[in-house]
Amino acid sequence: MKAENEQRTGLLYGFGAYGMWGLVPLFWPLLKPSGAVEILAHRMVWSLAVVGLALLALRRWGWIRELARQPRKLGLTTLAALIISVNWGLYIWAVNNGHVVEASLGYFINPLVSIAIGVLVLGERLRRMQWVAVGLSFAAVLVLAVGYGRPPWISLILAFSFATYGLIKKKLNMGGLESLTAETAVLFLPALGYVLWLSSQGQSTFATHGVGHSLLLAATGLVTAIPLVFFGMAAIRVPLSTLGLLQYMAPVFQFGLGVLYFHEAMPPERWAGFSLVWAALALLTWEALRTARRSRARLEVAPAVVAPAVVAPAVVAPAVVAPAVVAPAVVAPAVVAPAVVAPAVVAPPAREPA
User: Fold this and answer.
1) Where is this protein chiefly located (predicted)?
2) Which residue of 97, 136, 155, 238 has the lowest C-beta tally within 10 Å?
3) Does residue 328 fall inside a structural domain?
4) What's the predicted TM-score (pTM) here?
């Protein structure tokens, strides 16, 4: 019962995290007339304040000294910070410039790009259905390029930057709160410097468009940190495969907002391209669930089996007729069935969208 309650709580946190990431396109337009770079700078500055307070409350500071003693890890953290800055900045610009649908496509194809990076960089081997899914996604990009009259650069940059960011995070192996703190700390001074420079040039919108606008810019820290905290709470309570399926909530919400709320155009060729991407994701998810089910079945049906030893009782003849005859004990050898180890199953990677 306790485990069920924990999993139910984890699902609620997961829905909360991906739901907020999916609805965030409604927030960025509220920050106009601030530009994407100014919003990004404020997001970095205020995010560090929020996660710093969270770490202070949790008293989790020991990892900072360990990180400072590892130049390679510190370098990877800096690289991750730069890559996520590109991802965040482009996403904000896309939403505020009428490209919500194209941005959502980036997060739809992100799992497929992650698979491609796994093959090209990590030397991973794909199963047949995974190859089919990657092929469908490639065809989708071609169809969308025809539809847009250009390659879907926003989608591709968002997908590849976030997949690369995920690869670096895998190598870093840091918690969500700690990694966000480290990344925003690396970029804090440049971001703060840019905000101060805008103010000195009279181009800052922070203090010139009312208290409400200033509070909204400061709220970018909460918009960044709260979903991440929810994601972390979900990750420790639900299986990774479940979390991998929940991640599709965010781009679905974003796509719906782009079409129904922002009324972005969806000509037939774009529907065709998106349909190919959705088909690829459906295949990928079905294949992962099927492989996981087979693995569980093998482990349940073929555990190690040990046959009990069979011992024949000693037979003693009466002493008057003949000397005591003792038959040797017959012991059947223990039969051990080999343990069947299911192959590793990789669920669709669970990611943290912008």
Assistant:
1) membrane
2) 97
3) no
4) 0.77
What does the alpha-carbon distance between residue 32 and residue 108 come to, in Å, rounded to a whole number? 27
Number of domains comprising the chain: 1
C-alpha to C-alpha distance for 281 and 334, rounded to whole angstroms: 48
DSSP secondary structure letter of residue 99: -
In a domain, 352, yes or no: no
Instruction: Please choose, from the candidates 96, 55, 81, the residue with its C-alpha nearest in 3D space to the C-alpha of residue 191.
Output: 81
Q: Is 336 helix (H, G, I), strand (E, B) or coil?
A: strand
Question: CA–CA separation, 165 vs 110, rounded Å?
Answer: 11
SS3 for 311? strand
Grade residue 240 by pLDDT with cuts at 50, 70 and 90.
Answer: low
Q: Is 324 inside a domain boundary?
A: no
Token pair recorded at residue 30: 């509220």
Q: Is residue 234 part of a domain?
A: yes
Show the domain range for 293. Answer: 2-297
pLDDT at 307: 46
Specify the long-range contacts of residues 29-34, CB closer than 8 Å, at least 24 apart: 29/95, 29/96, 30/216, 31/96, 31/213, 31/216, 31/217, 31/220, 32/96, 33/205, 33/209, 34/205, 34/213, 34/217
pLDDT of 319 higher than 60: no
In whole angstroms, what separates CA 124 from the centre of its chain?
Answer: 18
Distance CA 97, CA 74 (A): 34
Structure tokens at 205: 């919108």
Task: Give the model confidence (pLDDT) of 16-44 as tens digits.
Answer: 988 999 999 999 999 999 999 999 999 99
Q: How far apart are the C-alpha atoms of 186 and 108, rounded to whole Å?
A: 29
pLDDT band per the 50, 70, 90 thresholds, residue 353: low
Tokens at residue 48, please? 């560090």
Rounded Cα distance, 29 and 254, in Å: 14
